[in-house]
Amino acid sequence: MVKLSRYILVAIGILSAAVTIPSLYWTIFREASSVPNVVYSRVLDDFMMIKRVDGVLVRADSEGNQYTRDEFEQLLPVLFFRQRLTSGDMPDTLHGVYMDHAMLSKHSANFTIRPVDMSQPRPVLWPLLESESGRVDLELPEDFFRLHDRIEFIDAATNKVDKEKSALFQQALEEGGFSFPARLIAGLPTDRKNVDDGYFIKDNRGDIYHLKMVRGAPYVARIDIPEDMDVIHIECVDLATREFFAYLFTDDNRVFLLMQDDYRLQELPVEGYDRSLHRLRVRTDLLHKTIGVIGEDQVKVFVVCNDYDLVDTFHKSWEPPHQRRDHILFSWIFPFQVSFLNPDSRYITLDVYQPKGIAFMLLHIVLGGVALVLSKWRQLPLKHQLPDLLIILFTGIFGFIATQVFPNKFYE
Questions:
Q1: Nearest one of 250, 274, 236, 279 to 117, comparing CA atoms
Q2: Is 9:406 a contact under the CB 8 Å cutoff?
Q3: pTM over 0.90
Q4: Other CB atoms closer than 10 Å to residue 8's CB: what's the count?
């Protein structure tokens, strides 16, 4: 029993060391990657970027020509239109389009989604606002609905189900062809938006439905989705232009816009995008849309006009993380790292990361030799140290620390 207890403590020690020591290592030695912020100039009809070089902020074009801050912003009047209007050097027209302040502001929008946004707990209760209340401001309702194998509205004050309202919306969904249970629901559950467009819901067959409340009555519309298209994530937006409702992400890493006028799907150019690895950033302005696919070792940018025809593309890569000095040193010291908090997920999970290569085995052999020398110095029988030596050979520095903190001699 004493031996078993000792090895349980050793196992706990290895797990604790595998969590805390690599985390401390990254806190001290991690080298931050400088990801350039790439934009598109309609003055030059070329890409420009802001990046850090040796700690200094540099503004340059795709050829490497550098600019001062004011020169840089003059070449990007659509992006920095407020500053250019204040400075008095805003062009009257650009590519035949009148640079009106109100229109520039209306069409200016930014959207960013990270891998962590794809992997996080979803709400189970949602507020359904009135879409056509006749009031200037939106108002949150006094009830919330939940939707799985049926839809139910629950009064927030009494926690009781509103059976009449629930039956009304249940009937509307069933008559619209909705197949329960619901597999995905997305919307903007807040009153801090221009208008309320309700929710977009994926049913059990994989079809997408639009649900909202119009003057107290349910509004249900089925959206045609190709049979070979599996939507796994939806991000709704609130645009002043009312151009589209949401971004739709599929299981094969394609991205679509759900257009507002006719529920049409407009695919975006995102070649190489992986939702588990990359950030997706979309900048919208009066003249074009800039779509950025941003990873740890590369950035790809696609520019489309307002008709979504491709205008230009940009691709820049740099040294991948596992080839940087901090990662190489990590691969020499640690055989693995255990983490309960994945930076790409809001869930608590047990993740084990193992670096590339087997360079760490050299350190394992050295640590095994050190443990053998220590056991002789303590005059411990070699046969009693064989299990510890095997533990060290497999778990390296973590096993070495655990077996030294909880030695066999401690129980003799």
A1: 279
A2: yes
A3: no
A4: 11
